[in-house]
Design brief:
By secondary structure, the protein is α+β, with helices and mostly antiparallel strands. It has two domains: 5-119, no CATH class; 129-222, no CATH class. It has eight helices and five strands; from the N terminus they run αββαβββαααααα. The relative contact order is 0.10. It has a three-stranded antiparallel β-sheet. A two-stranded antiparallel sheet has the order 1-2. The chain is elongated, with a radius of gyration of 27 Å.
Amino acid sequence: MDRTPQLNAALAKAKAEFPTILANKNVKIPTKTGREINFTYAELEEIAQAVVPTLSANGLAIAHQMQFVEDKFCLVSTLRHESGEQIESLYPLPIGFSDAKELGIQISYSRRYNTLCLLDITVIDSQNWEETKRKLAREIQQEAGLTHKPKDGKQGSILHDLAGVNPAQTISEAQAKRLWAIARKECNLSDGEVRVILTEFKVESTADIPASQYDKVIERIKNFNPKF
């Protein structure tokens, strides 16, 4: 196996300098079962714009060529270093194509994935990133219970910082619906009784419940004994 120490060093340095690459396209593909596959990706132009300046600054460049490799029609992508060292990534292409436009789509697709593989980089789903952070915050809260108060007096502040959310964040619409379902169906409480519970937490409606207090409100609802 050929050794590429100079390329390896240059690539390691370049990877530390690559900016975050955000997905800029959303695709929905229907399946035979009637379901729909939804995914996002970054276009080749978006990837190139993010990595080419850094690659060039470190003596690196990517070249793409179509050729036959062991009787298979492939796109051969090469990451080249100014020292002459290089590594390759192969992507099989269809041989019997009748539509040049379709072949062009396949080439663009393979150039994109070969580039990602050669540089070992990933694309972040920008559309779902904020929602992912919110979900992470809720999962952390539920897992930890947020029952221990830190020495700085800010309950859950470390967990919220890790999740990237504001400690003052209120519960979601889905959480509010779950709260009312538990109160009405499981505990047979009236709306008035639920509002009495909310006043104990110094809020007027479910929309005002802090996310950090959600589990405590649910627990209070389940243990509530109305006075007759």
